[in-house]
Amino acid sequence: MNDSGQGADGAPGARRKDARRNRQTLLEAAATVFVTSGVEAPVRDIATAAGVGMGTIYRHFPTRADLVIAVYHHQIDACAEAGPALLAEGPTPHAALGRWVDLFVDFLVTKHGLAAALQADNARFQTLHAHFLDRLVPVCAHLLNAAVDSGEIRPGIEALQLMHGIGNLCIGADRDPDYDARLLVGLLVAGLRRPDPVPY
Asked: Residue 83: enclosing H or E segment and its boundaries?
């Protein structure tokens, strides 16, 4: 018996680690497939992208709704966790905000079709929406406040207001290949900067 209380071979812990890794791989593969094919994509496409059998997917996610919800949660959490890291690593708070907004745009595009997939389970969708707000609004607010405190952007922009604006600019990005939501969102983020003083 080792210090963790497991057998010397650590098999239970190894199995749990493998299961977590498989689940992570499945979520990332599903998110990628959802971007190109929507949440109604065939399960076999997700299995192929993840390099696993379909049985593995059904063991982790018995229904499509379970998979969609898990992908949504995974992306929310990843986007939330990226905020502080980008702020710590970025050259400036405004640059960190811009990089985080890029991730947020990716998230919005990836969740295409979510509402339709969960139409028959509205209560679960409402829970997801609450999780979305609870996790992402404070992160966006923290990045905005840091950029305001650094003097880079003008004050008075609310996080939820900015996120709504970004969301509105992303509408239609999945239906029109000529529509560049990222370009417009980039202009929005650039427009947050304080105007240069007018020379006299």
From this structure: helix 64-89
